[in-house]
Amino acid sequence: MSATLTIHSAGPGLTVQDTGRPGHLGQGLSRGGAADPLALAEGAALLGQPPDTAAVEMAGMGGVVSADTDIRIALTGAPMQATLNGERLTWNASHTLPAGARLAIGGARQGTYGYLHLGGGIATEPVLGARSAHLAAGLGRALAEGDTLPLGPDHAGETGQTLDIADRFSGGTVRVIPSMQTDRFAPDDLKRFEDTEFTRDPRGNRMGVKMRFDGAPFAAQDQLHILSEIIVPGDIQATGDGAPFVLLSECQTTGGYPRIATVIPPDLPRVAQARAGDTIRFAFVTRDEALAALRDHANRLAQLPKSTRPLVRNPHDIPDLLGYQLIGGVTTGREEP
Amino acid sequence: MTDAPAFPAIRDVGLSGLLVTFADTLSEPANRAALAFRAAVDAQGWDGVQETATSLASAFLRYDPLTLDRDALAGRLRDLLAETDWTRAPLPEGRRLWTIPVALGGDAGPQFDEAADAAGLTPDQAREEIAAARTRVLTIGFAPGQAYLGRLPEHWNIPRLQELTPNVPKGALVAAIRQLIVFARPTPTGWRHIGQTAFRSFRPDAETPFPLTPGDEIAFSPVPVRDIEALQDSDDGGATVTPIREEGGPA
Q1: How confident is the model at residue B67, as a pLDDT?
Q2: What is the pTM of this model?
Q3: Residues A281 and A213 in one domain
Q4: Which pLDDT score, from 0 to 100, does residue A313 have?
Q5: Touching check for A152 and chain B: CB below 8 Å?
Q6: pLDDT digits over B115-160, tens only?
Q7: Which of A218, A229, A247, A300 is the best mutation test for B, with the most CBs of B within 10 A?
Q8: How many domains does chain A have?
């Protein structure tokens, strides 16, 4: 029998996300998919599932959900306060959600996009080969109170697993490489671009985020006469008001503003996860350095399924040791506050 | 800053994209070259090339840079570019002519008169020219299935507006810079809203989600606005489609 997840309340930015729909760029549809693909892969690893398994993406805050049968869950991405029947759950870990129990996920303590992964994955009908909502394209919609999601059959049984994650939830330095119009910017402006401390503007979504900064606008030579051209996630457009705008997974497929640089894929989650006011700096690297970083990233992703380990808790943090099942591997994985 | 590149130019798009650009302004030959060159790249079936696309005057390749060396791929592209004059290549096979009903002006196209004026025409002349125009799908982009159609005669080279119109509805016909677009989604825009269609250029649940293909031709047949309203629930919006026989092609 397949399980069903019910949404009892939902923050404004809850959507189903997987690895998106590659292959439709020429038809005007960007790939979309999870804003933080690394968090999607981490959750899949915690539950021993394929890396493209669909999960619930939560922008800024979560909601309250329950399932009609015991299911496994994992929580990754921007750390949020999560409680199960009043007990706090460890983030970046897998847990059991008993039938009927209410899982409440609050606001993000850091970062923007948190993920709720479900054993068996979300089994909604794929559209154009994926389950991801692509709101900019009109595919799917945000989840709302009263929605139910079918889950697939769950073949693996383990919970109480955790893994070490790369911190990417409070801005920082992101690596960029030159883009097709980088050489249309004056060398002084490119240096200023690297020297400027940007903050993420409050306006930002899955399509992209704007950067705030003090100083003169960034503009390219002959800017108004650039023909609209293919855009890829990570591209940084110098928009009409001269502010850099970093494009994310749900970006448009073409654009006419000049690209000053492109964020390398391993560092893009750092931009997506930054919250309004978090600081971001851009640092040019060579193509060879970027390729090496991409290779490292691909290796880390491949190693993720082998990187999980049991949640280990400090006995002093457990108020009632005797009440706990101490046989290895069968704890609930719940963490006391 | 460097001088403008010589065309065709090969440039990087991020870490995993190469763009072959035939001109820095839109022209019929450059668009034709982009379409033909993309088709030629597709026909090569190169391992590691994951996706191709065209924009107005470029062909784009997405590839896996961990398995396909960038310089080797660029070399193959240069060899392919040297094989022929791509600006004179034939248009893609299987092109179709779409005739799409449109209500022009009035509430259905609040900026129609203004657009006609900017083109130096009376509203009646503008209506006649839109009805007579046979435009080509130059590229599909920005939003899913959304076609950029062109080109209209030179006097339609009307600039985009400085102030964006906050929300132009799905199916709207808009005009600027000798081009027309039927919007796939409600969109804020600097293009002038001159008419309304019931044509859906993105149909996620249909067998053919993206009905239009670059190279297809589009004609607009003016109808009263009530006809458009009556067609709102149909995907096709009353459009008819017929195959185009290429000159010199099979009869």
Answers
A1: 96
A2: 0.91
A3: yes
A4: 67
A5: no
A6: 999 999 999 999 999 999 999 999 999 899 999 999 999 999 998 8
A7: A229
A8: 2
Cβ atoms within 10 Å of B25's Cβ, excluding its own: 9
Q: Is the pLDDT of residue A1 over 80?
A: no
Residue A129, token pair as written in the block: 């080969």
Task: Note the pLDDT tens digit of each residue in B199-211.
Answer: 999 999 899 999 9
Return the CATH architecture of domain B9-88: 2-Layer Sandwich (3.30)
CB-neighbour burial class of residue B82 (10 A; exposed 0-12, middle 13-18, buried 19+): exposed
Q: Show which of residues 292-321 on chain A sit within 8 Å of chain B, judged by CB atoms.
A: 294-295, 298
Given a cut of 70, whether residue A182 has pLDDT beyond it is yes
Same domain, A154 and A192: no
Q: Please indicate whether, in this complex, the C-beta atoms of A179 and B13 are within 8 angstroms of each other.
A: yes
The conformation of residue B3, written as its DSSP 8-state character, comes to P
Cis bond leading into A126, ω under 30°? no
Tell me the C-alpha distance between A53 and A44, whole Å: 7
Q: What confidence score (pLDDT) does residue A30 get? A: 97
Listed in order, strand segments (DSSP E) in chain B are: 9-13, 17-21, 49-54, 58-63, 96-104, 134-140, 147-150, 165-168, 172-176, 179-182, 187-189, 192-196, 217-222, 240-243
In this structure, the answer to whether residues A115 and A140 fall within a common structural domain is yes
Mean local confidence (pLDDT), A2-29? 96
Chain A contact set for B24 (CB, 8 A): 225-227
* A5: helix, strand or coil: strand
Contact B15 A294 (CB under 8 A): yes
The C-alpha of B187 sits at a distance from chain A's nearest C-alpha, in angstroms, of 10
Q: Kindly state which CATH superfamily the domain B96-243 is placed in.
A: Cyclophilin-like (2.40.100.10)
Q: Which domain holds residue A238?
A: 172-298
Sequence-ordered list of residues with C-beta below 8 angstroms from that of A8, at least 6 positions apart, any chain: A63, A64, A65, A66, A102, A145
- In this complex, is the C-beta atom of A178 within 8 Å of any C-beta atom belonging to chain B? yes
Q: Do A23 and B51 touch (CB under 8 A)?
A: yes
Residue A35's alpha-carbon distances to A175, A210, A250, B94, in angstroms, are: 18, 15, 8, 37
Whether A221 and A125 map to the same domain: the answer is no
Cβ burial, residue A195 (10 Å; 0-12/13-18/19+): exposed
- For CATH 2.40.100.10, the residue range(s) in chain B are 96-243
B96-104/B217-222 β-pairing? parallel
Does B60 contact A at CB distance below 8 Å? yes
Helix orientation angle between B28-44 and B70-82, rounded to the nearest 10 degrees: 120
Residue A314 lies in a domain: no
Which residue does chain A place closest to B68, by CA atoms?
A291
Mean pLDDT of A299-311: 95
| Strand intervals (E) in B15-133 | 17-21, 49-54, 58-63, 96-104
User: Tokens 């900019």 belong to which residue?
Assistant: A136
User: Interface pTM (ipTM) of the complex?
Assistant: 0.92
